[in-house]
Every structure is written in structure tokens, then in C-alpha cells.
Amino acid sequence: MTATTTRPARLRALGVTGAFALVFILLMVVAAVWPTLFAPGDPDAIDPRAAFTAPGLAHWFGTDESGRDVFTRVVHGTRQSLGIGAAATAIGVGLALVIGLLAGLGPRRLDAALSRVIEVLFALPSLVLALLLVAVMGKGVTPTLIAVGLATAPGYARILRSQVRSVAGSAYVEAARLEGQPALLVFGRHVAPNTLWPLVAIATLGVGQAIVWVSALSFLGLGALPPSPEWGAMVNGGRVYLVRAWWLTLAPGLAITLTAAALTVLGRRLGRVAAA
Amino acid sequence: MSIDETLALDIRGLRVSFAGVGEVLRGVDLTVAPGECVAVVGESGSGKSVLVRSVLGLASEGGSTALVSADRFTVGRTDTRRLSARGWRALRGAGVGLVLQDALASLDPLRTIGAEVGETLALRKVPRAQRRERVLRALEAAGLDSPELRFVQRPGQLSGGMRQRALIASALVAAPPLLVLDEPTTALDATVAARVLDTLAALRDAGTALLLISHDLAAVAQIADRVVVLDDGAVVEHGPIARVLMAPEHPTTRRLVDAVPHGPKPGPAPALGPVMLSARGVSRTFPTPGGGHVRAVDNVDLDLRRGEVLGLVGESGSGKTTLARLLLAADLPDAGDITLDGEPWSGATHRGRLGRRHQVQLVPQDPLASFDPRFTAGRILREALARGRSTSSPAELLDAVRLPHSVLGRRPRSLSGGQRQRLAIARALALEPDVLVCDEPVSALDVTVQAEILDLLVGLQRSRALSMVFVSHDLAVVRRVCDTVLVMREGRVVERGPVEEVFAEPQHPFTRELLAARRSAGPALRRA
User: Fold this and answer.
1) Does A1 contact B409 at a Cβ distance shorter than 8 Å?
2) Which segments cross the bilayer (chain A) (predicted)?
3) I want to staple A104 with a disulfide (CB 3.0 to 4.6 A). Which of A156, A164, B177, B327 is the partner?
4) Which residues on A lie below 8 Å from B370 (Cβ)?
């Protein structure tokens, strides 16, 4: 009964902008799972005669130097870009869960030690940290996403730690304890849900950010390698022809920007919904 | 009706409405003369706060745009009906000052009292040297000792009463002829409140017009000359304070007057059973930021028998809440021992306490914070029932605390203050406790709601033969509810005994001071 009364209220709390963002992200997810629905062609099919065709009816986003359809490539790149962003965030949040919960609920010394580690990691700019990790682990998709995941973990860990501490110290957790609920039950019923829901909103914001970073690393030639239609790599590939064929950079660049923007809007709205 | 130029505030037919809500004030007449204190009383939702905001031209600050109209609305000599936003800003501070209820939230923690109080003057380009002089005078007029020291201190270094007086000083500093006071003593201890009221009375005698908004009739009785009773946005009764309190005519007024706790506990003396909860030589020390220690509870002994209601009274910081937490075993003593039902309680293992927690339950001061924000009332009660031995259903618990069953699907946030406290009591009852520890359970509630909750608690305590520890700073409430009382000061018990004996013949000077603060509440409320 409560579910039916609260769900429409929650959807309404998303607002028009939030709803647009949600629809856009859902479309992106569909494109990632089933790219041929939007672009039935082969992203790697070359057609030298049609090289550098400007955007038009035949090729919505034009073609690149080998005559590959940019729209098809952007759509097929969704899986990789979105996937890497999500996976990197999952690594970051997963690591943060361990560190944040240990620091937030563990003994004071452990909290102090972990908090110092988080602070040291914070002192390094995340992208520099990611660059460092890629330099150590080598190029490629897997090192990139691990690097971005590790680089984002301290931020999540710090948020999680303070959230866990405030929930664990709240009057309702104490009330549950005074009722005689065992510690594990208190954690499962009160601490975990009230900590994790706000994190979902923040992680949604984080996926957008991770996509930008992964693209940045690919743009620098450290992540996905050129033939693959990853967005960052495509921007990098189009850089050489920027004056002659601007659409090569604009289309994947726009995809990155719009996805990140939609995820950011959605994350902020979700934050508000979680708080409501 | 000629225009009276001498009135500090003259309002006729004030109507305020909000889109979607409708009319909140429905034709209110209100006048305050210089040197007069007019009190506006009413239950929550009667429109008191909107009236305060309207007098300051802030009716729309609550979030939604307000539609304000009046036949007459003058502050001093200013007709405010055609006043621009800029005009209102000039009037606020110089023409009308405001003192809010929550002194901690109303003062910037990072700024000194001098800067905070002097802000009104700084905004009016008063030279710095002159400003300091006037701020010091205002601090003194507000009844703060050593104003030179207070000038450089920050809000965190002051006690609650001092902060409230600093707020009064900041409202006074520009010497406005009219001062609006929104529940200025509600959050204060009895002795501190008495001193703040004395300060206000002195200001009134010096010629300042006071508009006092309160639900505390005892406070109102001390300084107000006239009282206006507001109900559902309309004035239902007004007149001299003594007449209204002694012979209230309107049912709302009568309800408000009757709800003021007064007199001894009604009903027969309880049949006391064996000792339920016992403390021997209990102490609790906390470290202070400076590296020192403070003994919040210092060598306290107490015995609570089955069926007994024990009051813990004292000012804030006297250790009564810490002692209550020790009795709940929410915290453990550094020294001494607490036993529950003859068996170790504070000395038991963590696991040993877990199985007996249901025996001692808490009714908190702030019930909303004690509910998981994601849970509905029904789920809160079901969780509690799963812990206890009770076989009753959530609906039966709601019946016991006289809440409608429709509450089950609602979240506590959407309930009123009184309903939330009833829900907290229902949750505590779900565990079928032997001892109920109530920590200031009614201090955040309106006087009429307070009376209902107190009746409910006493009724439940009698029908279920509960033992109860009742923490309160309000002596009248303690007298109404408790059988015995412990008076605490700086962590120690300075006096103890049956309530009526302590009230009739207080032995310790501190107890006498506490009682005196309450007794000055005016002859009208001392009857009975």
C-alpha cells in the first residue's frame, strides 16, 4: 500500500528535467545492450569512397576518414563508454564501501588510519592518480577502468564514512538498540539502507564523471585503442581532421557531454528524492 | 475611531492568506501602546507565527507568497500597507525589533556577540566608536553581566539564557519602540526564563512596547498587561491578563488555561511494589575539550519502586539526562552500580543486557529523530513488537495511546508533534516494559497537547503498574505527574523526597530558587 502511494510521489519529485534525463539514460542503456536497434549497420564497415561525408540524410553524423558511419560508431560505442564508466564507478564504490564502513563503524584507531589514507589520496588530483596507475599497469581498457575506479574511491569512501557515522549516531539507531535489537539487525534495517540510498544518487553523478575521465584517458591514447568505437578514442581519432571534418570530434564529444550531463541531472534529482 | 498617533502598533482587520492554504489570519485587530506588553496566545496552527511575520513584513518568507490586507496597519507613525520592500527593511531593526525562540540557530556561531548585536547599527552607518558604546548599553539593558567580556565572546561560549539575552540585545540596540518576542522563554530553564522575563519587564517599564507571542500562559501571566487569544486565525477573546486568566469566556481560552499544569498529582497515592531499578554511587565523567573532565553525574543513589513515578528536575547541564541514559543502560557509569529487578544491569555483559532491554524503555524528547525516516508508523510498531513479548497488534497499541488507525500507513514526519509523541509512547509500550524513562517528553509541545500527553502517561502508568522516571525542567509538570522527586544540580542530588513535601518545604537553597522562579508565575495561575 505504501509502495503505491509513494512511488508516483517519488517520480514527481524527479521533475521534468529529471524525467528527461532518465529517459535519455534509458535510451543510452538500450543502445548499449542492443545497438543494432538504433544503428543496424556495422560500426567497423569501411567505405573509402564515402570518406569524409558531411552529416546528412544518408549519414546523420557524417563519415570518418575510412568512410565509416559516425552515427553507427557512436551508438555502438555506447556499450563500451557507458560500461567502462559504470564498471569504474562500481570499482570505486565497492572499494569505498569496504573502507567507508570500516572507518565509520570500526574502532577509532582504524578510523584514524583509514581517514589519513583517504586524505593522502585526496591530496593527489584524481586524474593524475589515474594517469599514474595507468603508467604502472600499462595501456588498455582494463587498466583504465581500474585506474579510474581507484581514483574515485577516496571521494566515495569519505562521503560514506561521514554518512555511516551520522546514521550510526542517530537517535533512531539508538532507539533500535534500546529496544534490544542485535547489532547486525540494526545495521541491516537502519544503518545500511539510510547510508546506501544517498550513495546511489552520488554514484549516478559519479558514472557521468567516470565516463568523462575514461574518455580523457582514451583521448590521451592510454585507454581504448583506435579501431574500437569508444567515444574518447573517437574524439582522439577525429582530432587530426578537426578543421576538415569537425563532425568526427563533435559527435562523440556531444555523446560524452550529454550522457555526463544527463547522469548529473539524474544524480542530483535522485539525491533530492532520496532525501524526501 | 480616531487615528491614535501614540500607539506603537495599530492593526485593524488584518487578513493574510496563502495560495492553496486559504486564509490564515481572518481579520485580526491588535494594538500595543508604548510601555505596554500585549501577549498573543493560541495553540499551534492558530496563526501566531504568521502574525509575527506579518508585523515584520515577512509574511511571504515562509515559502509561499502571502496576500496581506488590512484596514489599518501602522507601526509607530508608519503606515505599512503601502510600504515597499526597501521601506520595510528600513523599518525593521529601527522601528520594530524581533526576538526569536531559538537563540542558538539565530546567532552566527563564527561572529562575536559584539559584531552580531551591532549589525543593525552597522547597517545604518552608525560610526564604529558610537556603535560599541550602544552595543554595550544594549547588552547591559538585556540583563547580561560583564558586557565588555560578552562583546568579544562567540555564541558557543555563552549559555542558553545568555544567548537569549544577546538576541534581546540585538533587537534592542537600535532602540526600536516596538519589540516582537516569539516564544522568548520556551526553550529556557525555569530560573533562566524568570530572569529573562524580568529583563523584559524592565524594558516595558522603560517605555518599549512589547508584543509577546507564546503558548506558555505562565510566562505570559508574569509580564503581559493584556492578552489576545487567537484561534484559527481570529481573535476569540481579549482583555486584561488577570480577567482573561481568572474568568476565561471563550472555550479556547478555557482550554488553554486549564491545560497549564498546576496543583498536585490527582488521584490516590500509588501502591508501591518492590524496587525495580536501583542505583548506588553512580558517577559518569566526560572529557571536556580543554583536556579537563566534567562530572555529569556525581555519586547518585536512587531507588525506583514498581508503580512509582520519580521526577528528575534541575537546570540544563545538571546531569539529569545523563542519569536517565545510565538508567536506560544507553551509557555505562564509570563508578557505581545499577541493578534492574535485583539483578545486575550496568554490570551485566552486553549480551546479558540485550535480552532484558525490553524491560526499560525510553520516551524521548524529540520523537521524530528517534524514528527511522524511511519507516511508516505501522512498521515502527511492528519492529518494536517483534522485540518484545507483547501479543498485541499495532492497532491495539494505537488504541492504547488514542491515535487513529489511519496513522499506521503514515510516516512520522507527516504527524503532528503530539501524535509523534503518542507514537513514541506506543512503541515503548510494544515491548511491555517495567520501567519507562521519559526524557523531557512534553517540553517541545504546546500547552494543550502537553496536558493530553501527561494525562495519557499517568493513565498508562496506573493501568499497567509501570514504574517511571520523568526528566523535566518544568516543576509544575513534575508536580502533576510524579510521586517522588530528585532535585539535581551539577551532577549531584541536592534534595529528594515525596513531591508534595519538597514543594511545601524545600530544604536546599537551590530548590527554593527553582520554586521561586515558578511561583512568580502570577497569582492567577497559583490558584488551585
Assistant:
1) yes
2) 12-34, 82-105, 117-137, 143-160, 199-225, 245-266
3) A164
4) 171-172, 174-175
